[in-house]
Amino acid sequence: MKVTDKIKAIRKAKDINQEVLADRLDITVQSYSLKERGKRPLMVTELEIIADALNVPVGIFFEKELNVKLNLTS
């Protein structure tokens, strides 16, 4: 699972829309959507902001066991 897929899964599990994260990153929803779909690169500082907004440690985006840690289903 790619980092961007994990971000999307966590965001949806926490019922947070793209607008909230776009606001936190100070970018448009369209720009955020491109980043979340992997069409534009995510900077490390952006990952930190996203992790903070989702209330998760930034390292979770790099762990293999995301579904177990968040109790998510596919």
SSE blueprint:
Elements: H1 3-13, H2 18-25, H3 29-36, H4 44-54, H5 66-70
CATH fold node name: 434 Repressor (Amino-terminal Domain)
Give the percentage of residues in beta strands: under 5%
Question: What's the count of strands?
Answer: 0
Structural class: mainly alpha
Helix content: 55-70%
CATH class label:
Mainly Alpha
Distance between the termini: 11 Å
Number of helices: 5
- Catalogue the unreliable spans: none
What string, H for helix and E for strand, traces the elements in order?
HHHHH
Radius of gyration: 11 Å
What oligomeric arrangement do these chains adopt? single chain
Let me know the average pLDDT.
Answer: 89
- Identify the overall geometry: globular
What do these coordinates show?
- The protein is mainly α.
- The protein has a single domain, classed as lambda repressor-like DNA-binding domains (434 Repressor (Amino-terminal Domain)).
- Helices cover 58% and strands 0% of the residues.
- It is built from 5 helices and no strands.
- The chain has helices spanning 3-13, 18-25, 29-36, 44-54, 66-70.
- Helix 2 (18-25) crosses helix 3 and helix 2 (18-25) packs across helix 4.
- It is globular.
- The N and C termini lie close together (11 Å).
- The relative contact order is 0.20.
- The mean pLDDT is 89.
What labels describe this entry?
74 residues; 434 Repressor (Amino-terminal Domain); HTH cro/C1-type domain-containing protein; mainly alpha; 0% strand
Short characterization:
The protein is mostly helical. It is 58% helix and 0% strand.
